[in-house]
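Can't paste images in this forum, so I'm doing it all in text. The chain is below; anyone willing to post the predicted structure tokens underneath?
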Amino acid sequence: MVAALARGQSAEEIVDDFLSLTRDQVEAVIEYAQAHPKRGALCPAESEAGAGRASDLR
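Text version of the structure:
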């Protein structure tokens, strides 16, 4: 369901795809995801920009 939200599906579309879910449940997931964003590694572009190369250290 989170992947469906990331693809831009609306709550109504998700409820249509997952018949066992209610709109209230989908909205609760959305609220939870907004309150608790995923934490993890930096995206590769940001990591590479700050990492530098070994040749730069000489």
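The radius of gyration is 19 Å. The CA atoms of residues 11 and 37 lie 19 Å apart.
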